[in-house]
Amino acid sequence: MGRDTRSAGSVSRSALTRWDTSLLAALAAVVVVAGVTVDGFASARNAQFLLLDVVAIALIALPLTLVVITGEIDLSVASTLGLCSAVMGRLWVAGLSLELIVVLVVLLGAVLGAVNAVFVTRFALPSLAVTIGTLAAYRGLAFVVLGDQAVADFPAGWTDAASSGRPVPWALVVVPALAVVFGVVLHATPFGRSLYAMGNNAEAAAFAGLLVARAKFWLFVVSGAVSGLAGVYWTLRFASARADNAAGLELAVVAAVLLGGVSIFGGRGTLLGVLAGVLLLGAVRNALQLADVAADTLNVVTGGLLIASVVVPNAIVLGRDRWRRRRSDRGPR
Amino acid sequence: MPQLKRDPRPGLIAIAMAAVLVTAACGGTTRGSEQDDPAAGRATGQANPDAPLAEGLDVAFLPKQVNNPYFTVADGGGKTAVEEFKGSFKEVGPSEASASSQVSYINTLSQQGTDVIVTSANDPNAICGALNSARQAGAKVVTFDSDTKPECRDVFVNQATAEGIARNQVELISEQIGGEGKIAILSATPNATNQNAWIELMRAELAKPEFAKVELVTVAYGNDEDQKSFQETQGLLRSYPDLEGIVSPTTVGVAAAARYLSGSQYKGKVALTGLGTPNQMREFVKDGTVRSFALWKPADLGYLAAFAGAALASGRITGAEGEEFEAGRLGEFTIGAGGVVVLGPPSVFDAENIDQFDF
Amino acid sequence: MSIPDASTPDVSDPDAGAPERVADPGAARFARRLWAARELGIVVALALLVLVTVVGNPAFLSPQSLRDLVLGAAVLVVLAVGQTVVIVSRNIDLSVGSVLGLAAFATGKLLSSAPGTPIALVVLLGVGIGALCGAVNGALVAVARVPALVITLGTLYIFRGLDHAWAKGQQVNASDMPRDFLGLGTSTVLGVPVPALVAAAVVLVVGFHLRSYRSGRELYAIGSEPAAARLSGLPVGRRVFTAFVVCGASAGLAGVLHTARFGTVDATAGTGVELQVVAAAVVGGVAIFGGSGSAHGAALGALLLTTIGSSLAVLRINPFWQQAVVGALILAAIGIDRLLVVRAANRLRGRSSHGA
């Protein structure tokens, strides 16, 4: 709140790299400590389980990071995933080929994203409210499409490729590849830098209105398309197309993005931080699960990490500001 | 702010997409073009009925959801059994009933080298792959309450046969409405496998001459959510003012319906029965809303499942039809077709006996 | 800028506090009329819905049915009104579902272990637990100055985790609780169920405070222009903190109502209700940016959402459509709000150019 955080955003441009590195350090610490103290953590098999568990969150977090950096949010991602999964099941039952279905489903995701985008950019509606609306609408449509049925007879070749493929499940290649693409776009192109500008400076954004709208439009479309891809992954990994797939996942994704150091006000955050955040949450969960810690504790830890991720940096900045102010108060007027 | 020019990329993307679509549309993997091998993952090996029951087995219960009272009781029964055969027991699981989190827990259990995994599936298909990979890693898998596909587990411990439940429910409601009148069913979700099987068999039961005057007017779905079931009960009585009775073969549904009836003008006039737990229904049996209802004993279910797991892990049984094993105080059980063991007929609870039960 | 927080004045956002900023009294009257029309719109939608349902099934308007309807809406109304107080100040509270769960379980636990506890004390405990949770949120948001969405998303997980850790799979059943408490959930005064009366009281008290008290009015100012509010000397931190306490307390009260009405509580009570609550407020015309909206608007939104559920059940429409309809309704509501704001802005522009 307050101007303080805002100025903190620009003041601590260097602090944000520190947030990345501290997250990576925390991740390394968790991995080392868990590897030594928790039986079964340090094994290739467990690493694969861990990574497969975070794939959907990691995938959706990639475009969402860009969306949040522009100061918008997309809460409909998990419902988009669910609707895409339901449609995938319907089309498979209808006899289409899986290759075609995958393409159609990703396109459907893009269309659903475009619907969000139209509401947000053309009608200038707040994305939080719009995507709470489409969160309900898309999930509802998923149930209209597939009801409470599950479509499960996907070919074993495809489901194995998603869950236990050799040498690695395809998603474990696709996520890093997409991460590189999104990372380059965000951090190494003028377009990427303009996203920070949009999130940082409302006035400049309003001044350049049309361009902002167009950039945001495509970000929502990409967010939808990637959620659709996550729907394909989810359906194949669990060999089950259902309308309620990934219900509630939106909060987990948002939590991961925020833990990764992306400011909910926009204008601040890195993709590396988000990936570190996703992995940190996944590793902590996995390690605690292996150590037979109950599910309720996992929730408390997730929430605690999230709050710490905003309170700690803010406390540091506030403390420093106060110290500076006191010094300048003492100085000559 | 850098200038963004309208670029030709969208056009290129569209062309590329079209190309992909055309390629994908010709040929490719369609339904039925690839057959699963149904024998994959079936139990193999020879049973040795004389093998001693192994001690020190690691038995893990993975319910649909931890902190769910029904499963807390069932798992408690499992714990008693595991203590009897001197194994070590634990209960793990997600706090929300989702198949994806169950998969994560199954992987963890497999990684921990658990001997027996006793689980109730949130989705018969979604946890299949994880269960099979756990079995390959040496675990024995017993499902209870809700089964997976048969090829993903060694034994399924069924709470009661579908015929037994259908017969019991129809008899209870018919008796309560005096053998004549309109009834409705309040079910869980529209595609819950066991619910639909029961409903079909109840229809078959109602077709018999002894129930000729009992008419089933509709089936409503409360999605196993309290509030939804409550609303659906209201809806039923709105839509069918001359309804005589409601059957709700789901613990959530019957409790919600009972609560609605007990606070409405229909209390004591519209009969209600179903599958419910004594603790949830005690109030409504005592205030006259409900005369009798039924349920298996969840603690016995968990107890039997644990013993089935121990018998599997000790090599006494493999899950093949006709094998027999002993389950402590419950006695001998025989594995039926498809690797299914049936606990027995449901127990009926009424004002006379309800105070003897606490679950 | 779409995230409700109290950080930046948002110049690109004309609907932040649209009816509040108006200086010209004639225009103010016009804007007020416009917003009255907005709330009238919900009433009309509600009436249409009821009408269609009654045509399909006349029993829908029977006294019993109406009682069921308002009873079903009571919990959501209380939650939505509390949420309104927070949203108006350009914040959000996503933890209400978990707070409800915690308070509901505490209520059940207290009543089952000490059945003789006076009901007033029970209600006080529930509200107190809620207020305490709200104070935690409020302190983190107002004192540590971090965005409400992040904090309350975190406490959503934490409060629920505490609830689960406490309950350990137990369930408190109707038979464990005294009858006179459960009677609260079903008994009626002059034909109106008690929980509905409680909800109505909350709407009146909160609505009156927001409209007529200085501290209430200041929330709108804070929500419209947080920076300006701070510069003009408003106690922003204290007001926002109080808003969260009020929201938490109302979630606690909703927890008590939940227990009284449903009779059985376990650790999952209220799971996932947070987005429904925000949806109810938004449908009721509360701007997600803060600065405008009313308690009775939010209450109407909650009533409309609940009625949709009941209508579909009574009309025997495939229940799968319900969520899709709710989603469409939210989109329609914010679309209409936007339209009204643009209209008001045009009208104002027209007036001021005449005046010049």
Description:
The complex is a heterotrimer of chains A (about 325), B (about 350) and C (about 350). With about 325 residues, chain A is mainly α. Chain A is built from 14 helices and two strands. Chain A has a single domain, classed as Orthogonal Bundle (ABC transporter involved in vitamin B12 uptake, BtuC). Chain A has a two-stranded antiparallel ribbon. In chain A, helix 1 packs across helix 2, helix 3 packs antiparallel against helix 11 and helix 3 runs antiparallel to helix 13. Chain A starts with a helix and ends with a helix. Chain B is built from ten helices and 14 strands. In chain B, a hairpin with a 5-residue loop joins strand 11 and strand 12. Chain B folds into two domains: about 180 residues, Rossmann fold, CATH 3.40.50.2300; about 130 residues, Response regulator (Rossmann fold, 3-Layer(aba) Sandwich). By secondary structure, chain C is mainly α. Chain C has 14 helices and two strands; from the N terminus they run αααααααββααααααα. A two-stranded antiparallel ribbon of chain C has the order 1-2. The longest helix of chain C has about 35 residues. In chain C, about 60% of the residues are buried. The N terminus of chain C is likely disordered. Chains in contact: A-B, A-C, B-C. The interface between A and C is large, with 66 and 63 residues. Chain B: This is Rhamnose ABC transporter substrate-binding protein.
Share of helix of chain A, binned: over 70%
**Strand order within the widest sheet of chain A?**
1-2
Strand content of chain B: 15-25%
Query: Which consecutive residue ranges of chain B, at least 5 long each, have pLDDT under 50?
Result: 1-6, 35-43
Rg result of chain A? 21 Å
Query: What summary fits the major beta sheet of chain B?
Result: 6 strands, parallel
| Average predicted local confidence, pLDDT of chain B | 85
Give the overall silhouette of chain B: globular
From the 3D structure, determine the CATH topology of chain A: ABC transporter involved in vitamin B12 uptake, BtuC
What oligomeric state is this?
Answer: heterotrimer
Arithmetic mean of pLDDT of chain A: 86
Looking at the structure, what is the overall shape of chain A? globular
Instruction: Note the gap between the termini of chain A.
Output: 29 Å
Q: Approximately how much helix is present in the residues of chain B?
A: 25-40%
Strand order in the sheet with the most strands of chain B: 2-1-3-4-5-13
Helices and strands of chain A, in N-to-C order?
HHHHHHEHHHHHEHHH
**Portion in strands of chain A:** under 5%
Subcellular location (chain B): Cell envelope
Domain Periplasmic binding protein (chain B): 59-316
Pfam families (chain B): Peripla_BP_4 (PF13407)
Protein name (chain B): Rhamnose ABC transporter substrate-binding protein
